[in-house]
Amino acid sequence: xxxxxxxxxxxxxxxxxxxxxxxxxxxxxxxxxxxxxxxxxxxxxxxxxxxxxxxxxxxxxxxxxxxxxxxxxxxxxxxxxxxxxxxxxxxxxxxxxxxxxxxxxxxxxxxxxxxxxxxxxxxxxxxxxxxxxxxxxxxxxxxxxxxxxxxxxxxxxxxxxxxxxxxxxxxxxxxxxxxxxxxxxxxxxxxxxxxxxxxxxxxxxxxxxxxxxxxxxxxxxxxxxxxxxxxxxxxxxxxxxxxxxxxxxxxxxxxxxxxxxxxxxxxxxxxxxxxxxxxxxxxxxxxxxxxxxxxxxxxxxxxxxxxxxxxxxxxxxxxxxxxxxxxx
Length: 328
What we know:
The radius of gyration is 24 Å and the shape is elongated. The protein starts with 12 loop residues before the first strand and ends with a helix. The chain has two domains: 70-112; 122-320, Jelly Rolls. The chain has helices spanning 57-83, 89-110, 283-290, 321-327; strands spanning 13-14, 32-33, 122-126, 134-137, 146-155, 163-170, 173-181, 187-191, 194-198, 207-215, 220-225, 228-233, 247-250, 269-277, 308-311, 315-318. Helix 1 packs antiparallel against helix 2 (89-110). The longest helix is centred in the first third of the chain and has 27 residues, at 57-83. Helices cover 20% and strands 28% of the residues. The strands form three sheets. The protein has a seven-stranded antiparallel beta sheet with strand order 12-11-10-5-14-3-16. Strands 9-8-7-6-13-4-15 form a seven-stranded antiparallel beta sheet, with no helix packed on it. The protein is an alpha+beta fold. One of its GO terms (molecular function) is metal ion binding. Its cofactor is Ca(2+). Residues 120-322 form the Pentraxin (PTX) domain. This is Neuronal pentraxin receptor.
């Protein structure tokens, strides 16, 4: 099931709850959540730069109202602190902690809505070629009869082979799905150890959007770079279903289930927005993702912070690829 492009953002929701008990001082710390299911359509960098987006008036109004509530809460707590001159040291510490948390919230509001970082705005970085830095996707795959996998890649290999942006291994088959460029050879897609050469290139050290789709029916595949179809073919592991419950690794090629990495096949660089669907995306959908006008999250594997864990010195840092690649 494909997500619709440019879904409307939900109205921010703000809740404040506070109270004091007679037996002792306790606080119900306010909770605040600003939930946004999808960001607005991102900037198309192929066109002239557009002015910075304006935060909706309704959001400003909500934030102003919240800041007023927070300030009132701070004043109330200041009075309580003064009244605690004869109370225990522990009670005073609790009030100080509450005040500090509220003042941090107010400071965040004063920086505006730009402080919000969506759960998909991050990247995985592997700075050197080795056999121990990688990231693991924590969500298992189901059985698949078709897929599209898309990602943003910036290789830092220096033109010596781009290594392995990702590999998916299952029990009994280490090369269930692998994207690999070893040495001077072309980039290859492996499915169940069957190979197709892809006309893709990452050798300029810049950001590139890569999408690959495949279906078990006749083994049809397509490869896109930066929104353009670069190649297609058939008879790649035809009628083979992708096996479920394997291990998906970013940055290393697996010779056994979840391990035995080879440094010569490691990816060096940055990976962002790795998404996977259980069907072939249309050319228009791929183009929309690539030019940042129609972002989509994978219906099988979405690029979410909680689903990706970095190991061995690989880093996970906040990064919006549609903004950040313009400055790279």
